[in-house]
Amino acid sequence: MTRNLKELIAQMTVEEKASLCSGLNMWQTKAVERVGIPSIVMTDGPHGLRKQERPGDMSSKTVPATCFPSGAGLASSWDRNLIREVGQALGEECLAEDVQIILGPAVNIKRSPLCGRNFEYFSEDPYLASEMGAQHVLGVQEKGVGTSVKHFAANNQETLRNSINTIVDERTLNEIYLRAFEGPITEGDAWTVMCAYNLVNGDFCSENEYLLTDVLKKRWGHGGFVMTDWGAINERVKGLKAGLELEMPYAGPERDRMIAEAVKSGELDEKVLDEAVERMLKVIFAAYDARQEGYRYDREAHHALARKAAAECMVLLKNEGGLLPLNPQQSVAVIGALADKPRYQGGGSSHISPYRLDEALAAVREAAEGEVGYAQGYSLTEDVMDDALMNEAVELAAAKDVAVIFAGLPDSFESEGFDRTHLDMPSSQCELIRRVAAVQPNTVVVLSNGAPIVMPWLDDAKAVLEGYLGGQATGSAAADVLFGKVNPSGKLAETFPVRLEQTPAYLNFPGGKNEVFYGEGLFVGYRYYEAKKEKPLFPFGYGLSYTTFAYEQIEIDKELIKDTESVNVTVTVRNTGSRAGKEIVQLYVKPVDSSVVRPVKELKGFEKVSLQPGEAKKITFTLDKRAFAYFNTEIHDWFAETGAYEIVAGPSSADTPLAAEVKVVSTGVPFRKVTRNTKFYELLAIPETAAFAEKAMNDSVEGLKQMGALFAESMGDGGLAQLFDAVVKWKKYDGLRSMAGLMGGNTSEADLEKIIRELNEKLGL
Fold first, then answer.
1. Where does the Fibronectin type III-like domain start and stop, copy by copy (predicted)?
2. How many structural domains compose the chain?
3. Cα dihedral 481/483/485/488 (nearest 10)
4. Helix (H, G, I), strand (E, B) or coil at 458
């Protein structure tokens, strides 16, 4: 139905318009029945529907729904199509429960593995998180249900999350933390965005004009509305001015009165309120019109999808001697309380009530043809060394062909609401693994955890399967992978460190009483480990298969491009094993020589490809300006620097056997205006000023040669040559002001000012 929203808003009173800017209750927006504006329902996500039977009654139970793997697991699939399919299923369940907006996806960056909510987030890499988030949004919204991308922005810890002030430089904020939100907004066209509780550089996210207006609305063109996280409000009118449309949940009539009074007093321009209401109505009517009364979905089909997703997400971390997949004829000792009572989701607002739950013990018994025994091994409620439980497990393991230990983190170790203080598993589980492996060399460990753990027992286990929090079908999916019904194809979307002290944010997490300083800057996750040449336990992008793959060739269609053009990169990969399998081809870009600090390499493309034994496929990636660009804080925009870039491809961030090189020529200007502090390298990168910069540098170098005589006697020829090389390199980056007499130059101040004027005129600045 087409409506003239501006005409509708013109019919409304100030009080009616203000009322739309806060919720009706915990989960609904207000209606304005006089002019035909309906109420819509929203509910928690993102990996399942957490709807209460009565939206206005917090004591009511949550309805049964499909619990899919949480974000940490889903991202490990690296499968855009799968994420979109899960999103579509979520949309269908929303339609069936008359829910118009599901709160998710959660795309915050995994700055530290200690963040208690990391199980809900996708990745440490902003490109991967952005791609996964975009597909989630597209899948849900294809069904006529809105999403709310969260938590905007730089919300990377649970400690003091309501009040912590995130101090992060502009470049890091844009390249790492905002980049993860870009795809869901620009590609996915997310209907709503949820702002976070915290402050960013001194302003609450709910009233941060840079985030909500400059970036979200102006740069990315977001046409929907921004809502608060529940209770994430500071000053209501200030928030509205900054770009916050909806406060959730309902907090009494005072907030609406504040807005209405601010309009009537002239403090708030009514046009600001009208624009906010128009954004609200655009989403409200789109969501309301898409409702389908009596909609039904196929629960068994959704459970099958949850099982497929969980299996696709599992990451094979170790498989010595090809122990996995298991032979169904083998006798199996299933050990660990988590095999019988699975931990399949995280704690907090995303907690789902699944209508079905597959335990791994039952699934292994169903899949195996040999004898299967079970021992609890440890307690889930307390971390104690229970010798009776351990001895039972050891005795069982020694009597079977293989032992499969289900281990991981209990609910008390990680949840929304608090951060972890260590990366350890319960000590009783670690000891159990050691004791079992001492009597059973064929020991497999299957993990259930929402975030990285350290593995002091890694050498004891022959195989390790990372299952993350795999949702309601995690048990059957684990059996599918263990017995080879599914060939594992997941890869880590985050780095697993050897120890906590090795992590990038170790010295700056979770900060002090009032603020947290993002001191590691751009070097989050694998960017840090590569720059420091630190070897992690398992690198970003890592994951094994029951088959093998060979990276045979990389081709580029151009060796020289302008930043207004793109380059196609084709990678040939072959399945060299005896089983069908899926490989995740990863493409990274490495600046060969940059004038600014940059990571060693960054992920810029990936594709999951299915291959039969012996089959080869060519995968083509298209790289444009953004693949080579960094965020330039002088022009406050992305800038691709002139220079050579190596494009590398392989199975993980630590293994990129294929490489090609492309030269990029910048057509942009990396500064707003030429000043006396403009650097030579910036002028050299621009065709219109390159000749001038080259001549000026050469003239300056001649002056340096003449000055060299002053140092020759004291330094000798060798020392003088070293000094000269160092100074010349410095001169390459030095500003124009060095021409005014410094280093033997003969340029006067008047000459310098004239040069600056002429350069600005030449560039049209």
1. 583-653
2. 4
3. 30
4. coil
The kind and range of the H/E element at 303 are: helix 299-313
Coil, strand or helix at 421: coil
User: Is 426 in a helix, a strand, or coil?
Assistant: coil
Cβ neighbours of residue 304 closer than 8 Å, sequence gap 6 or more: none
Same domain? 277 vs 130 = yes
Tabulate helix, strand, coil % of the chain (nearest 5).
35, 20, 40
Q: Is 600 helix (H, G, I), strand (E, B) or coil?
A: coil
DSSP string, 101-121: EEE--B------TT-TTGGGS
Q: Is the preceding omega at residue 153 within 30 degrees of 0, hence cis?
A: yes
Distances (CA, A) of 535 to 50, 531, 532, 647, 661: 40, 11, 9, 22, 26
Contact 108, 492 (CB under 8 A): no
Query: Which residues, at least 6 apart from 659, have a Cβ–Cβ distance to it below 8 Å?
Result: 554, 646, 647, 648, 649
Closest by CA to 119, choosing from 163, 69, 164, 167, is 69
295 located within any domain: no
Residue 598 lies in domain: 549-665
Q: Say yes or no: 285 and 310 in one domain.
A: no
- State whether 693 and 652 are in the same domain: no
- Residue 676 CA: distances (Å) to CA of 688, 702, 728, 739, 752: 18, 21, 19, 9, 8
pLDDT tens digits, one per residue of 254-294:
999 999 999 999 999 999 999 999 999 999 999 999 999 99
At 710, is the pLDDT very low, low, confident or very high (cuts 50, 70, 90)?
A: low
284, 263 in Cβ contact below 8 A?
A: no
Chain segment 491-503, per-residue pLDDT in tens:
999 999 999 999 9
Is residue 1 within 8 Å of 285, Cβ to Cβ? yes
Q: Is residue 653 part of a domain?
A: yes
Residue with structure tokens 């079970």? 374
In a domain, 539, yes or no: no
User: Which CATH number does the domain housing residue 385 bear?
Assistant: 3.40.50.1700
Residue pair 36/321 in contact by the 8 Å Cβ criterion: no
The 3-state secondary structure of 172-198 reads HHHHHHHHHHHHHHHCCCCCEEEECCC
Paired tokens of 91: 């949309």
**Amino acid type, 746:** N
Q: What is the pLDDT of residue 743?
A: 44
Q: Backbone phi, then psi, for 353, in 5-degree steps?
A: -100, 90
Final residue of a domain: which of 501, 532, 563? 532
Is the backbone peptide bond immediately before 55 cis, with ω within 30 degrees of 0? Answer: no
User: In angstroms, rounded to a whole number, what is the distance separating the alpha carbons of residues 133 and 149?
Assistant: 8
Contact 439, 480 (CB under 8 A): no
| Cis peptide, bond prior to residue 151, ω within 30 of zero | yes
Last residue of a domain, one of 289, 322, 356: 289
The stretches of 323-426 forming alpha helices (DSSP H) are: 337-340, 360-367, 387-398
pLDDT tier for residue 742 given thresholds of 50, 70 and 90: very low
Token pair listed for 153 = 């922005």
Take residue 467 and report the two structure tokens written for it.
Answer: 């299952």
pTM of the model: 0.95
d(CA 691, CA 119): 54
| Contact status, residue 623 vs residue 569, Cβ threshold 8 Å | yes
**Cα dihedral value 658, 664, 669, 675, nearest 10:** 80
Tell which residue, 233, 123, 141, has the closest CA to residue 185: 141
pLDDT higher than threshold 80 for residue 366: yes
Q: Which residues are catalytic?
A: 229
Q: Which two tokens stand for residue 603?
A: 């992920």
Interacting residues of 717 by C-beta distance below 8 A, sequence separation 6+: none
**Are the beta carbons of 122 and 72 closer than 8 angstroms?**
yes
Task: Give yes or no for a contact between 313 and 77, defined as CB atoms under 8 angstroms apart.
Answer: yes
